[in-house]
Amino acid sequence: MMSIRSPLARLLAPLPTHLRDDAARRYARQEAVLLDRLGSLYGQRPDFLPWLGDLMESVGRLYAARAPELRRQDAQREARPDWFASQSMLGYSAYVQRFGANLQGVAARIAHLRELGVTYLHLLPFLRARAGESDGGFAVASFEEVDPALGSNADLLALTAQLRAAGISLCSDLILNHVADDHAWALGAKAGDPLLRDFFHTYPDRVQPDRYEQTVGQVFPQAAPGNFTFVPELQRWVWTTFYPYQWDLNYANPAVFAAMAGAMLGLANKGIEVFRLDSTAFLWKREGTDCMNQPEAHSLLQALRAIAAIVAPGVLLKAEAIVPTPKLPAYFGSDAAPECHIAYHSSLMAAGWGALAEESTDLLQQVIAATPPLPPAASWLSYVRCHDDIGWNVLLNEAGADGPARLARIARFFAGTPGSGSYARGAAFQSSSADKAHGSNGMAASLAGLESATTVQEQEYALRRLLLLHGLALSFGALPVLYMGDELGMTNDYSYTQRADRAMDSRWLQRPAFDDSLLAWRHDGVSASGRLYLGLRQLIDARGRLPALAAAAPRSVLPADTPAVLALLRGDAFLNLSNFSGASQRFTLPAGEWRNSLDGSVLAGTVGLQPWHMLWLEREQEQKREPA
Ligand code: GLC
């Protein structure tokens, strides 16, 4: 029988009396956006209202199941919604298996994270993954279960509690775009369940797929060409943007939205505080387009945000949208309809590496100019490296008329092609031809020259380049996320070439196991690892005491005489001066005295910058003079 009760009544029905006032208040704040976005996506369907009621009732059940300590945290964060945008937030990202062997091993690394000043830990996918190759866990077979190879659900609950006690928020991937071909939904579809087949985009022949292929790009043109896979059990073509075993979900089906909203809240109730919304740009398909960044994808995310804000307002959504700079701000939504709290700034990351290759900050300056101020209670995510390639195509807008060729030159530089004179040791990723760039792989230390360094000076320069890029990420005005091993200068792991299931995907170069022998040298001011670690720690400590480096504090770039130098001003009292070239440069400081944040020396007038040298400077307060 169709229920005539309102969505609010259905939400409150499963809740004990003492939770109802809060739930009703939060619902009232979200109602307009929630109903509008879900109505725009699914309102035409005759079953919309009963579906909405059922959705709200299941949301209510998950609300009721939320643990009191998580509800307390929610209340604190509701009172301070920009809690994550401060200059003392610092992230760290790692594969569970590589960092600690399993979840218990990760818990044993909390001391290391605390010593670094980490307050946010992104563990790459740890839910039960597809049997066999799984794209590093990005082919999820169950959203309810920790991968048995990495631990149990009880281990996850224990880890989230330990991290919370240590002041570290756990971030988990929420892989919204696709599931593994052995997820129960895919298995059910293969077994002939028509409701589950409708969870996916499937086609009886190539007519429709061929139409889409005319305008849709390719993420892995070499390792997984095309966007559709023929599935013999279905006798149909299935949309598979990434690997053939990752089946894209069909969000035109409201059951998919409800299932994924439930998956998100279930994980939030296990203590996940941040969701890295994987591949958010791809959620909605529209013929004749590249099927990225569609308005409906934004509606879906806004509806998801509204649901999170009702049940778990302490939880953050983070957009992994690796898209050109102008497409990024939309992932924050608007004041009336907020979307993600945090968004990866992959253009900034790529432009930083581009600046090293070109010994010019041209791309970087353009990216910074194209980065709008943040809306309230939001943050960019800055980073130097992550588990994926450095994708160059996000810079096509900035790279100018010969963009593809220019980016291809940069990619060749990082491939360290023998004879190119490059210090980098990386690999080009999925490039379809020599005059086009797709991505570059490699650990930061290898790309910056530490792996190839044979002299003291080469090593020194490599360390400077690493500190330069990290210094940018730490001072840009963002949540900076360190990638596991970069704090110690860990280099490439070439062992993937020996495994048939990985050899075609050079992203495994940057997925080494954590090296405890380097960790032991972290306080040694002579070893490369120790110098890098101590240098980073100095930057992190300085950042923590500088409110001008908070995410939302204003940012501008001062003109320099040479494109080799970036002069990034935060507020009017902090300056990051970075020389991205191998030649010494000079820069004339704005009037007044400037104190070096790291060694306390005071500078004024024209300063010299050694090759790849960075200065962090704070404007000296003018002494108040006693009236004569
Ligand atoms: C994201 C992940 C990447 C993965 C892809 C498909 O981009 O970062 O590692 O291959 O999504 O899930």
List the uncertain runs. Answer: none
Q: Hetero groups bound?
A: alpha-D-glucopyranose
Total DSSP helices: 20
Broad shape? globular
Largest sheet: 8 strands, parallel, barrel
Residue-averaged pLDDT = 96
Kindly state the percentage of residues in helix. 25-40%
Could you explain the architecture of this structure?
This protein is α/β, with parallel strands linked by helices and 628 residues long. 35% of the residues lie in helices and 15% in strands. It has 20 helices and 24 strands. An 8-stranded parallel β-barrel has the order 1-2-3-9-10-11-12-16, surrounded by 4 helices. It has a 6-stranded antiparallel sheet with strand order 17-18-19-24-21-22, covered by helices on one side. The chain is globular. Bound molecules: alpha-D-glucopyranose (GLC). The site of alpha-D-glucopyranose has 10 residues, from loops.
Q: Could you give the topology of this structure?
A:
Elements: H1 7-12, H2 17-42, H3 48-64, H4 68-79, E1 91-94, H5 96-100, H6 103-107, H7 110-116, E2 120-123, H8 153-165, E3 169-175, E4 178-180, H9 184-190, H10 194-197, E5 202-203, H11 207-213, E6 228-231, E7 236-239, E8 246-248, H12 254-268, E9 274-278, H13 295-311, E10 316-319, E11 342-344, H14 346-358, H15 362-369, E12 379-383, E13 390-391, H16 403-415, E14 427-429, E15 439-441, H17 444-447, H18 456-475, E16 479-483, H19 516-519, H20 528-544, E17 555-558, E18 565-570, E19 574-579, E20 585-588, E21 594-596, E22 602-603, E23 606-609, E24 614-619
Parallel strand pairs: 1-2, 1-16, 2-3, 3-9, 9-10, 10-11, 11-12, 12-16
Antiparallel strand pairs: 4-8, 5-7, 6-7, 13-15, 14-15, 17-18, 18-19, 19-24, 20-23, 21-22, 21-24
